[in-house]
Amino acid sequence: MATSTEKSAYLRGLIDGAPFLIMAVPFAVVFGVVAADAGLQLGQTIGFSLLVIAGASQFASLQMMLEDASIVLVLAAGLAVNLRMAMYSAALVPHLGKAPIWQRAVVSYLNFDQSYMMSILEYERRPQMRVPDKVHYFLGVASLIAPVWVIATAVGALVGAQIPEAYALDFVVPIMFLAMVAPMLRSLAHVGAAFVSALLGLALAGLPSGMGLIVAAVCAMMVGAAIEVWMERRA
Amino acid sequence: MTYTNAEIWLIILILGVLTFVIRFSFLGLIGDRTLPPVVLRLLRYTPVAVLPAMVAPLAVWPDATGGAVDPVRLLAAAATLTVGVWRRDVIQAILAGGITFYTGLILTGQLG
After folding, report:
1. pLDDT on residue A4
2. Cβ contact (<8 Å) for A97 and B93?
3. Alpha-carbon torsion (A218, A221, A225, A231), positive or negative
4. Choosing a second label site near A191 at 20 to 30 A (CA), which of A101, B6, B102, B110?
């Protein structure tokens, strides 16, 4: 039976996670629309959101599929965007490392930007929280967003199948990507990495689908890290 | 898109499993060991390193125009980026880009 503190931690998480629905719903609907438009079956589109639950990654791999890239490169693009989650996973160890393995598995499955960021904030705000409370808070944040993410994807897929070609959906994905990237440009290092990425993405566009992307991404990561080191030395 | 249904399912399954492995990496497998600073540094830049390289060719040489530069799409991309950087808000950026794009299409007679 859940104790009252566990329940209140879960409820707090639920409440803190609710505002993210404003962003999750349109994102998931648009993913469903674009996926259906690209020719994915309803089950496949839902499967994507159910198994991956990561907006940028789903859009990235879908875009590679639209370009008919090889399967390896489709996966590389989708996974590259998710590498940051290894960082999230590491940051949760001091807080949740003592929880039972199955709870850590559930938390890992539900570890996306919003659930991670809200939870870390809460753990820092309330350092006296017990491990079960921390787990319940995390699940509270995620348990609204995750199902809504999947349902909204399905709605988008059903709607998308009805939208005629004339509505120029081709530019929805670029707008989503740009909207995701822009708020990340917080420091000179981020701007530098993004700039190199875009420049090389253009310069290498002639390579087979996805190849240029990988080269551009690796170079841009190194530029971002190098600028960070350089800024630290100067400071 | 030219993948078979089985290939699409394969992509979804592998992506799902490997994404879980990334998420489970430290919390479930490696445990309490700190990452070398150089790895942390590189990981920090993965999203900003991947997404611009993907979007730049789509914005400059869109498929819909057969790869010809399209002022409407460039303007919509610029609006999305500008509002996103300025407001630090994904939804406002999408709205700015979407409104610019469809207004542009209507004004240039490409829609309707």
Report:
1. 64
2. no
3. positive
4. B102
Tell me: ipTM over 0.90.
no
Mutate to test the interface with A, among B27, B39, B103 (most CBs of A within 10 A): B27
Whether the CB-CB separation of A215 and A204 falls below 8 Å is answered with yes
A26-47 confidence digits (pLDDT tens) = 889 999 999 998 899 999 999 9
* Cross-chain residue pair B11–A61, CB shorter than 8 Å: yes
pLDDT digits (tens, 9 = 90+) for B62-87: 878 888 999 999 999 999 999 999 99
The three-point CA angle B91-A213-A47 to 5° equals 60
CB A173 within 8 A of CB B84: no
- Specify the pTM: 0.82
Domain ranges of chain B: 1-33, 47-112
Nearest-neighbour CA in chain B from A216: distance (Å): 6
pLDDT at A8 over 80: yes
Out of B9, B47, B58, closest to residue A184 by CB: B47
Find the CB nearest A180 among B12, B24, B51. Answer: B51
Model pLDDT, residue A167: 73
User: Is A49 in CB contact (< 8 Å) with chain B?
Assistant: no
- Tokens 């800024």, located at residue: A231
Closest chain B C-alpha to A8 CA, distance in angstroms = 24
C-alpha B69 chain-centroid distance: 20
Spatial separation of the C-alpha atoms in residues A173 and A141, rounded to whole Å: 27
A119–chain B Cβ distance below 8 A for any pair:
no
End-to-end CA distance of chain A: 52
Output phi, psi for A186, to 5 deg: -90, -30
Q: What is the dihedral of CA A38, A42, A44, A48, to 10 degrees?
A: 90
Longest CA–CA separation in chain B, Å: 59
- One-letter amino acid of A171: F
